[in-house]
Amino acid sequence: MSYETILVETRGAVTLITLNRPQALNALNSQVCAELIDAFAAFEADNSQGCAVLTGSGEKAFAAGADIKEMAEKPAADFFLGDFFAEWQSSIVKPTRKPWIAAVNGFALGGGCELAMMADFIIASDTARFGQPEIKLGVAPGMGGSQRLTRAVGKAKAMEMCLTGRMMGAQEAESAGLVARVVPLADLLEDTLKTAAVIAAMPRMAAMVNKEMVNIAFETTLEQSLLTERRLFQILTATQDKAEGMAAFVEKRKPVWTGR
Ligand code: CO8
Fold first, then answer.
1. Are residue 45 and residue 146 in the same domain, yes or no?
2. What is the pTM of this model?
3. Do the Cβ atoms of 67 and 103 come closer than 8 Å?
4. Which among 114, 116, 124, 142 is annotated as catalytic?
5. Does residue 158 carry a catalytic annotation?
6. Is residue 10 part of a domain?
7. Is 66 a catalytic residue?
8. Structural domain of residue 50, as residue ranges?
9. Nearest CA to 36 among 105, 106, 111?
10. What does the record give as the function of this protein (predicted)?
11. How far is the CA of 241 from the centre of ligand 1 (A)?
């Protein structure tokens, strides 16, 4: 598939995906959605790739939300019958078992904030601004904003942001737990790519299991998630990379991972 609204390139074992509609502040329309689904599926299927980074083109926005111009004329029945927003979860988040990072380089609003929160973690530029301003359009978050934001920053901040549309700056987002780290805008891409390269160089199955384990914390009861964690740990002990990692430690040498 050739892409018109995103750019995809590989840097060693890292796939860099860039939302590329800067004239519309990288707003997410149905073409972006289809192209992202395809790009994430290709990343997931490519054994040479261990981690992905998603960012926005230009210095102003990661993504300023779902494309309001596309949504404005759409009849309600089309949203409902087409199960609008469902494919983000079912076609990007769920099937992507390898880790990916959102490098948020500016506005991450509405669907843009929701897309960033689908990543395994967010690294933000000091210029990043997060918000769920859907209420000002007469709607509400539709792809996880009220749920993932609340889990990330707690009820008080999430409720205030959803009810007023207030944007949260990068420093506040870091102290509230929404983002892993804040870096100067000029360093954002290089820093995130370096972090992604560290992850991509880890034993593959262990990286996938670590991702799954942390995500399970949000899905189920503590008792169930502790059991799942224990079982996944036990399964990893059967891998070649476990044998190699532990032998390398004992022999005081660098491990050589096979990804098996
Ligand atoms: N959709 C379509 N076009 C947009 C969007 C958007 N979300 N955001 C900005 N643009 C366009 C503007 O229309 C403008 O285009 P043009 O030059 O042709 O008029 C261009 O981008 C530049 O924008 P501005 O001139 O407005 O730039 P400013 O610097 O003045 O303002 C803001 C920047 C504050 C970010 C402003 O653009 C803004 O408020 N944008 C809308 C933010 C918003 O409300 N986002 C939420 C949208 S609803 C949503 O996301 C529902 C979530 C459900 C998920 C859907 C997944 C598909």
1. yes
2. 0.96
3. no
4. 114
5. no
6. yes
7. yes
8. 6-201
9. 111
10. Could possibly oxidize fatty acids using specific components.
11. 46
